[in-house]
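Cross-check.
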Amino acid sequence: MSANFGAAALRHAGLAARVLGWRPAEFWSATPAELATSLGLTADSGSATMMSRFDLQRMMEHDDERPG
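Predicted model, tokenized:
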């Protein structure tokens, strides 16, 4: 994953914790669309950077590699 994605994920996780009261498991189980909707962000508002298809695929591959 790109450094930009990691930094953005960290910022959004902290924001979700403070604003929404989400615990880490709730943040990581949410889809990007659910997070954006919960924070009141839209793709065309310029307030959020949308995740690239490549970053999403890498994140999904990483999740598949974790021990169950």
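Helices lie at 3-20, 24-29, 32-38, 53-65. The mean pLDDT is 76. Passed to J.P. for a second look.
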